Every structure is written in structure tokens, then in C-alpha cells.
Amino acid sequence: MANKIVRIIVGILIFCGIVVGAYFILPGSVKYPITQYLQSNFDTTNYNSVVNAVKASTIPGNKGITYESAMNGTCDGPSWTYEKVFTDDLGNGTYNVFVDGYKTTVTFESADSDGMITNTNAHFRVTFQVQKNGSEIKIGDKVLEAGKKAEPMKIEVANSTYLPTDDNDYFQKALDFFASHGTKE
């Protein structure tokens, strides 16, 4: 009898190990929607306060276009997830909020004015660094509220990374591209 119980427990542990291992080797287009589902259903307090604040904020240089609207228009079913960078027991601290989209074409003018930069069937990721203190959500020193501008920390499209501090204006061009697919709120 004890031998059977041990076999069942070992079988359950092996199954769990296979499931967890498979999750970690999944491509992002499958993994991030699963992560979004888990975070939005099992950590609702942090997910709703941090991620929804970013979704409702607007894109700089594009009045009235929210990130949620822009990302939904850019690709089919973007994944909104977060990562706790440093938090206390109450959930206060620093979070990285990510929005990932797949199978989209991202196009904007080249800085050399010799044509367009086009990434076809591309993965994009927009990263925000957010500080949460109680119900107050901030990006940098600005309080994040619905309809207020929020600048991401970085934008990654295909194999390129665009930062707000870059000399070229690709960062803003990428934001403008996303905003062109959104609707005004």
C-alpha cells in the first residue's frame, strides 16, 4: 500500500516537473498569454492596479490615444504582463510592465531618409518601469492616471531596441506607429 502511494506521489511530481519545464521552453507568443491569464486571475490586486494604470495612460505626442487602444489595434491579442523588480509584503515597490505583440508589421521612416524601416511578422515589446505606493502609481516622478501621458522605458521591435535617450527619433516613431492603430478615448 505504501509503495503505491509513493509511486502516485512520484508520478505527480514528474508530471508537474514536465508541465513547468514545458512552460519555460514555450515561445513567448504562447507563454505570455498564459502568464497574463495567471497574473490577472491570481494576483488581481497588483495586476489591476499596475497594468491597468499603464493601459489607460496615453502615448506621448499622440493626444487621446491610450496604450491599450494602440496595442489592440496593432496586433491581435497583445499580452500585458508584469514582473516584480522589488516589492514589499504589501505589493508596494517597483514593477516592470510589459506589453508583447506578435505577427505584426511595424513600419516607420528611416533616420537616413533613404526609405522605410519595415519589420514584417515581428514581435514587439514595450516596457514600462512603474513604482507603486499604495494606490498611487508612478512612472519616474509623474503620477500615472487615466488619460495622462506615460513614457515607456524601452521599445523592442524584432531585434532592435529603442530608448527615449537615443539620438535618432526611432523611439518616438515607434510610439507614433503604435498610436496610428489606436482610437481616441
Task: List descriptors.
185 residues; alpha+beta; seven-stranded antiparallel β-sheet; 7 strands
Polypeptide structure, described:
The protein is of the alpha+beta class and 185 residues long. The protein has helices spanning 2-25, 28-42, 44-56, 67-74, 170-179; strands spanning 79-87, 93-109, 116-133, 136-139, 142-143, 154-157, 160-162. Strands 1, 2, 3, 4, 5, 6 and 7 form a seven-stranded antiparallel sheet that branches. Helix 2 (28-42) crosses helix 3 (44-56). It is globular, with a radius of gyration of 20 Å.
What percent of the residues sit in helical stretches (DSSP H or I)?
A: 25-40%
Order of H and E elements: HHHHEEEEEEEH
Q: Averaging pLDDT over every residue, what do you get? A: 84
Runs with pLDDT <50, length 5+? none
Number of DSSP-assigned strands: 7
State the helix count.
5
Principal-axes shape call: globular
Strand coverage percent: 25-35%
